[in-house]
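Re: that chain you flagged

S.,

Sorry for the slow reply, it's been a week of failed gels. I finally had a moment to sit down with the sequence you sent. For the record, here it is as I used it:
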Amino acid sequence: MKAKKNEKIQDLIIDKYYGERKNEALEKSDCDNALLEKKLKLLKNKLEPMNKLPLVEIDIQKIIENAIEAKTKKQEKVNFILFFLLSFFVFFIYILLININGFEFFIKLQVLIGTFIPWLLIPVSLIFSKGKV
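Prediction finished late last night. Pasting the structure tokens below so you have them in one place:
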């Protein structure tokens, strides 16, 4: 009950500060006028400097664009790191295969990959792009 009365007092003070309530409405309320006047003076002291400051213009569209740009840059960095790690892994596998089976095996593997990968990637890319060219 006391919390609701405090909220009511705060609402009355704010309404009085901005001129939304008249003195008659305050007199009809069951609040102490001396207390209201004291709190109103405190509120005026706190809000005076804020009312004198110039209005701050905020460009929300620019903020959203900057956030999207930052997110895109972060995603690009992650993609670059993943590409670098995957490339290093493939290179390491090639070196390992050359050491285990010899250079001749590596050349045969490259010929097979160079021949069959295009035959596999073209249909797969068409399936995932759903026929869009």
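What I noticed first: The mean pLDDT is 78.

Talk soon,
D.
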